[in-house]
Design brief:
Layout: H1 2-20, H2 25-34, H3 36-45, H4 49-85, E1 91-93, E2 100-102, H5 123-126
Antiparallel strand pairs: 1-2
Helix pairs in contact: 1-2, 1-3, 2-3
Bound molecules: zinc ion.
Length: 131
């Protein structure tokens, strides 16, 4: 009997915490009386509904800002890559060391590793002649 009373009393703690955050006191009191060890941390992590809505709105705004930033960065990188590649169309980056090498190179002159020559979409090169 004393144990039951102790449980009821100790259950008041998560009940009061949850009630202060806009949740059902009675439910949390019963929860706390039955499973105090579980109910206490749960009640401490509770958020009031208004605060949750506020945080959701903030998160949506932050996600939108982040998406915008990523889009801007990607666009800027694309423009920079295009600008860098445009003046010298017959160069590319080595896949191993990232140095700029000739597009037709089979071996990187910086790291001496084999690289696949870039296939040109050139009709004369594409057709190997009469077979
Ligand atoms: Zn290399």
């Amino acid at each position: 009997m004393e144990l039951l009373i102790a449980c009821m009393l100790i259950g008041l703690i998560p009940g009061v915490i949850a009630a202060s955050r806009g949740h059902n006191f009675l439910l949390w009191w019963l929860f706390g009386a039955a499973l105090f060890i579980v109910a206490l941390p749960c009640s401490l992590f509770l958020k009031s509904p208004e605060r949750k809505a506020e945080e959701d709105a903030r998160r949506v705004a932050r996600d939108a800002a982040l998406a915008q930033l990523v889009a801007n960065t990607t666009a800027a990188q694309g423009a920079a890559t295009a600008a860098a590649a445009a003046p010298s169309g017959d160069t590319r980056d080595c896949p191993w060391c990232a140095e700029t090498i000739k597009a037709a190179a089979r071996i990187c002159r910086f790291c001496n590793r084999d690289v696949d020559p870039v296939e040109r979409l050139d009709p004369a090169a594409a057709s190997p002649g009469p077979a």
